[in-house]
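User: Quick sanity check before I run a bigger batch. Here is a single chain. Can you write out its predicted 3D structure?
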Amino acid sequence: MRIGLLTEGGYPYVSGDAWCDRLVRGLGQHEFDVYALSRSRSQEDEGWVTLPAQVRRVRTAPLWAAEDDGVVYGRRARRRFAEHYGELAAVLCASGSPEVASTLEADRFGSALYGLAELALDEGGGLGGALRSENAVRALERACHAPGAQRTAREARVPDLLSVAAHLERVLRPLSLDWYQDDALGAVDLCHATSGGPAALPGLLARHFFGVPLLLTEYGVRLRTHYLAATDAPPAVRSLLAAFHCRLAAETYDRAAIVTPGNAHARRWQERCGADRAKLRTVHPGMDASPFAEVGESTDCADPDTLVWVGRVEPTKDLVSLLHAFAEIRKEEPKTRLRIIGAPAGPEGETYLGHCRALAAQLFPDEAEGPHTVGDNPVSFAEIGGPELPTLADAYASGGVTVLSSVVEGFPISLVEAMFCGRATVSTDVGAVVEVIGGTGLVVPPRNPRALAEACVALVRDPARRERLGAAARARALELFTVEQNTTAFHGIYLEIVARTPVRRVVVDETGEPRPFAVPAEAHVPGRWTGARVVPRSVPAWASPEGAR
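Assistant: Done. Predicted structure follows.
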């Protein structure tokens, strides 16, 4: 089948999501058309990864730059824009919690969204200019001051409205793209959006215009990401943008044929935001286990008394608590050492790393074993790629216990890598940690150095337990978190969705002849087992199964 892979800041760019590349390479029996939204000029300048033969087409569009296509709306088009954008603004300003929006508000939001998309299609683009116009700001202002608007919306000032309008223009840029043609997204059998938000918009429009089914995958819930990033915005801006992203997420969950969260933590977020539990299929991220095979299968350990932390250095990793916990560990087991391995994440990470180095020097003055030896700090900081630690596997192999001390975590990739290496782990109970560990490691509350220290001491003192937990962790990781299980799961979901989708066209080969068996036979058979169906516009209502009842 032909899959339209929809990405935002991901595949096929070098700095994008590696799981998409592994998915495409693992499903060589399908064809892929990639529709990618880039996040920055630097990302585009990095270029693409090497694409496999099954990627037949790549189309890209920037989310970081507003393109002026020179389209000027006439009076009728301006009136249509004012109507749909005003309706969108009215929904965002409506009183009540956006997480529990009524069916009427959801319908109004969808009508406004698809109305704007139809306007852009009819006018050949140009929606970006209208979204940046003074008319858009005035529509937001009228909605904020209308009767029944929520209190925070009524308090919005002109700078707040300008910020909201600019954000909406960036997020809604996919509505103006030229991807919604019969030879583009209209030609695919299935759209697979690799995240919510802007990446899902082309899938929503392909479903709206052509009846193409949509599969949504969220390894990091986009709505949660927005909440975490919007903490510094003024209250009115936070309220209006939260309403928009909540309703966009609800619309995407409602229209998607199947939603695949990456873990139970993401699944709970999706259910809270309106996703139908019957549509949810948990598909864990697929990771390449081969780089860790040699370490995982080996019984040797470089230093069983060494604790290892691996990851990006940033405040959410709470290395300060880890250092305080290590001070307690040294009181019980003076021979233990701590290796902090990872690069800082941006300027904030650089500052945090400097703070952690200073704290380590304060807590653990350089110690010498005798009067004629040089002092050494039991805490060391290193990065992957040097002569001592050339690979990630070498980092995990350098100690007997791997520690994760985060206060915020989504899917803990470093924890899975440690499990591939057969290492016993001590982790804080955040994000999907408990789901990933599944009883093969020790879990303690976050921001609790004493509990973290006690768990580490317990494993340092018990080699048999370390070995037993490490073997169980490796077996669990190989069963649940490999590329093979990921691609197998998505292959089955692709077949399930297409099998429930009515035939929209005749599939032909290179010579123009119809391809037999290109569409599953069960798609021709009406009935409850084919699930919800989208009737193309060319089919009258009385000809659909719903209209015949």
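The mean pLDDT is 87.

User: Great, the batch can go ahead then.
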